[in-house]
Amino acid sequence: MAALTISKLADRLDAFARSQWSDKSILPYIPRPVKWLLLILLLVNIKGFPLGWHLRIFRPTIYARVYHGWRDLWDSKEQRLIRLTKICPIGKSPITHETVFRTRATPDASDFNLHLSNSSYAMTFDMIRVKYVTENLPLVYPDGCWIALGGTHYVFSREIPVNAPYEIRLSAGGWDHKWIYTVARYVTYPKNTKKSKDKSSESSKQQITLAQTPGGSIAPSPARSPPPGSSWFGAPLPPGAVLHCTAVARCCFKIGRITIPPTLAMASNGLGMTPEGFAKVQELRFKDNGKSIRKLYSGGWRDVPLEERWWDKAFGGELEIQRTNGMRALAETVGIPVYV
């Protein structure tokens, strides 16, 4: 009996498909309120459309390619590298030099509790890392290198309400012989700025105490959330900013399968370098069509005597103090053993 009913239903559907009504749209028969509801639903979730994530994450790269694309058609590789050199952050500290990404906790990125979903933090973290590389390490990929992600860690302080504007401030938190730790701070600016300033000033007075182990690593205390509005990494937070989340990504620079020291990769892009020192790096980059610097990346740096390693010298002094403080803050905040 059931099989007969299904067969009749299939015959009717087939007859309808072959009828004169099959080529007519059903939109005129949908009530107007339903149409408006569908339109609003589409607009609210427009960021979740297919390829929407790809367009957002590669927006800085797309902008750079569109801006330079018409000249790249006939310019040489050397001329393209010269243009990219103009945006290199020469002489800036990777600890205090921040990249800022502004967005909003849209409904499609929020959960049923009406605040930003945990998965959305990871999604926007990807976006600002791409922007950070585009702005601060523009010569990494043209040199034939790439960046590998080794892990992420999130410390949530408070939720971001739905539809609230927020920004992500990313900088380097520290580095060792292999890994660079980038730290992103998710902040908002509530209307009650006086209360936010009070919280920020109180939390900034807290001290970080750590025990140094004989092996050179920092013994971390149990992971805990940083105080709202505090600045544990890099540059101080702007006045009135309230901290919602601290995200840490552990990355390393690679050429093929070979790991490049973070100081070498950063100094080769101008970070921590003087204009005169970076000019010498450029001579190495343009020598032999880039073969010399790729050889240096591919393990040639090991043959350079310690006293001649210009990339380590560039990150000495004040930058080394900033790095050590950042690594200690990482151990205290994230609760993982890192090495000074």
UniProtKB/TrEMBL annotation:
Protein name according to UniProt: Uncharacterized protein
SUPFAM superfamilies tied to this protein: Thioesterase/thiol ester dehydrase-isomerase
Domain of life: Eukaryota
Name of one Pfam family that matches: 4HBT_2
Family label: Belongs to the lcsJ thioesterase family.
Region entry Disordered, spans: 193-231
InterPro entries according to UniProt: HotDog_dom_sf, THEM6_lcsJ_thioesterase
Naturally occurring in which organism (per UniProt): Sphaerobolus stellatus (strain SS14)
